[in-house]
């Protein structure tokens, strides 16, 4: 028997690049997706879901590149089945993920199908996929709100049709731990052939139960858990990979289960994903938050010094948490940088390290000490700038003060080298800059959120500006980085405007054919 198939082995199915990326504003570009995929492979996840190949030609290319370059995990993809198989062809091990809603509310209001039709469509898609791929996962979307008898029937028919993994999602985060574990137990007791497939769960966190529900299901016999790094995902997010993995490890006495995850890399992968998506991790986040291992109160500190386990159930080094924040400076060499990047979880090509090194030297002229946070930020912006941009900032002057209205003058450079200028007044210098950019580019977007955050400590710290805007019903997020926050704001807004313009171009290409069985997302 394969070492991965013993009864106590839980398969970790990561969906950061699909469900995680579906979180409003979390979209990643090609370079960022590849970075995350590499970090996940090195973390040791068993299956990695990488997106929808039909979402756009860019997505297709990203999936295909990951399938070709990233070794280790099974690469899974959702249908359109034919497009999925085409994009996945270069991956040595790949899986097609077929899904259809089964709950009464979805059957009646979304699918307008009878129970019998749901069974027919689901089994048809599974059979079609199975004829072309050995590894087929079926998800009964909104399973947690499906009548138990009907769910039992659907799962049995899906297994007969050839599904090799059966996934039971709590799509809307409605279940409670004991009840959800009960569903899994019921299926194991009543579905013919259930022992021949992997039983999986996929829980959302709308009521804060995603990790608890997943653990309850594993206790009841599920052996695959679908999760994301930092718990990102639609709405309140998914089951957090680092939490479920560390719960199984720390309470092995209770669960008796194990995963193949190299837990020492959890913190570094968490940073890579936070950097790529722009979703900062809360300081008090379990396992990977900055304060997860910090102790302020005197009594706690005293206890910690006598014996760490008085107040810690995990060792910081087991999740790769490092209290030391190695500082690089003007005189640090390429070697020190390469080592630090590797420690932080980044796997870069030599020419990418060269670029980071160049940027680092430039930054070291403005700033004495370079912290890990500076490196994270540099990398994010480097990958962003790798994408083709229609407009670039050529120059910027902003004036603010008492007695004069805030104003700005901005010059943008177009891709064909033309320089366009505009000047404006505004409520503040940042507002004036945004107005200039709007006038030059003709892209009008509604600002929904604007935040400035120091990426590291100190008076000369770099500020990272994040802007979130809405444009024609879509949310876009842009980031800018500089020791000057007006400049960082301009970069962030320009990134958003470039994304909107790129999206417009993309949508002008003819629409992809409707996928056969894409009826939502679990
Ligand atoms: Zn989901």
Explain how this protein is built.
This protein is an alpha/beta fold and 522 residues long. It has 17 helices and 16 strands. The strands form four sheets. An eight-stranded parallel β-barrel has the order 1-2-3-4-5-6-7-8, surrounded by seven helices. α1 (30-43) packs parallel to α2 (57-69), α2 (57-69) crosses α3 (81-88) and α7 runs parallel beside α8 (210-219). The longest helix has 23 residues, at 485-507. The chain is globular. The model is unreliable at 506-521 (pLDDT under 50). The structure holds zinc ion. Zinc ion is lined by residues 19, 202, 204, 233-234, 238, 521-522. Zinc ion (ZN) binds next to loops.
Explain briefly what this protein structure is.
The protein is built from 17 helices and 16 strands.
Which helices and strands occur, and which strands form pairs?
Blueprint: E1 11-14, H1 30-43, E2 47-49, H2 57-69, E3 74-77, H3 81-88, E4 94-101, H4 104-111, H5 115-132, E5 136-141, H6 148-161, E6 165-170, H7 177-190, E7 198-203, H8 210-219, E8 224-227, H9 241-250, H10 252-255, H11 266-277, H12 298-306, E9 328-329, H13 334-343, H14 350-366, E10 369-370, H15 372-385, E11 391-399, E12 407-414, E13 419-425, H16 429-441, E14 446-454, E15 463-471, E16 474-482, H17 485-507
Parallel strand pairs: 1-2, 1-8, 2-3, 3-4, 4-5, 5-6, 6-7, 7-8
Antiparallel strand pairs: 9-10, 11-12, 12-13, 14-15, 15-16
Helix pairs in contact: 1-2, 1-11, 2-3, 5-6, 6-7, 7-8, 8-9, 11-15, 14-15, 16-17
């Amino acid at each position: 028997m394969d070492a991965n198939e013993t009864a106590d082995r839980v398969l970790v199915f990561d969906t950061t690049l699909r469900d995680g990326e579906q979180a409003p504003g979390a979209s990643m570009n090609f370079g960022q997706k590849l970075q995350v995929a590499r970090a996940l492979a090195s973390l040791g996840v068993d299956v990695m879901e990488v997106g929808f190949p039909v979402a756009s030609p860019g997505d297709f290319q990203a999936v295909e590149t990951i399938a070709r370059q990233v070794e280790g995990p099974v690469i899974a993809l959702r249908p359109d089945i034919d497009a999925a198989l085409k994009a996945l062809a270069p991956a040595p091990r790949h899986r097609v993920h077929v899904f259809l809603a089964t709950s009464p509310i979805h059957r009646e209001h979304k699918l307008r199908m009878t129970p019998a039709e749901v069974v027919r469509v689901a089994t048809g898609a599974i059979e079609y996929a199975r004829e072309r791929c050995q590894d087929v996962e079926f998800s009964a979307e909104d399973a947690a709100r499906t009548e138990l008898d009907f769910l039992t029937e659907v799962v049995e028919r899906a297994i007969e049709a050839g599904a090799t993994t059966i996934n039971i999602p709590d799509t809307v985060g409605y279940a409670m731990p004991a009840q959800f574990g009960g569903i899994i137990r019921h299926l194991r007791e009543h579905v013919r052939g259930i022992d021949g497939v992997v039983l999986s769960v996929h829980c959302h966190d709308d009521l804060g139960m995603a990790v608890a529900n997943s653990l309850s299901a594993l206790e009841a016999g599920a052996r695959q858990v679908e999760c994301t790094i930092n718990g990102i995902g639609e709405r309140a997010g998914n089951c957090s990979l680092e939490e479920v993995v560390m719960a199984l490890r720390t309470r092995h006495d209770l669960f008796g289960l194990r995963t193949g995850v190299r837990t020492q890399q959890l913190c570094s992968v968490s940073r890579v994903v936070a950097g790529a998506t722009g979703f900062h991790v809360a300081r008090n986040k379990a396992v990977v938050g900055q304060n997860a291992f910090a102790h302020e109160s005197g009594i706690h500190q005293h206890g910690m010094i006598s014996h760490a386990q008085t107040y810690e159930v995990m060792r910081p080094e087991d999740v790769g948490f490092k209290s030391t924040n190695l500082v690089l400076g003007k005189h640090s060499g390429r070697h020190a940088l390469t080592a630090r990047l590797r420690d932080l979880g980044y796997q870069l090509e030599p020419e990418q390290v060269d670029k980071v090194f160049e940027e680092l030297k430039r930054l070291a002229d403005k700033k004495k000490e370079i912290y890990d946070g500076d490196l994270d930020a540099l990398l994010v912006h480097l990958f962003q700038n790798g994408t083709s941009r229609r407009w670039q900032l050529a120059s910027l002057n902003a004036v603010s003060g008492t007695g004069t209205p805030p104003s700005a003058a901005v010059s943008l450079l177009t891709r064909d080298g033309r320089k366009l200028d505009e000047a404006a007044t505004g409520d503040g210098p940042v507002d004036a800059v945004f107005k200039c950019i709007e006038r030059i580019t003709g892209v009008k977007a509604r600002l929904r959120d604007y935040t400035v955050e120091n990426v590291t400590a100190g008076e000369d710290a770099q500020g990272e500006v994040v802007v979130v805007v809405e444009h024609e019903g879509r949310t876009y997020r842009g980031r800018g980085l500089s020791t000057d926050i007006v400049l960082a704001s301009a970069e962030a807004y320009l990134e958003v405007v470039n994304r909107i313009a790129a999206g417009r171009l993309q949508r002008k290409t003819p629409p992809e054919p409707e996928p056969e069985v894409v009826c939502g997302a679990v």
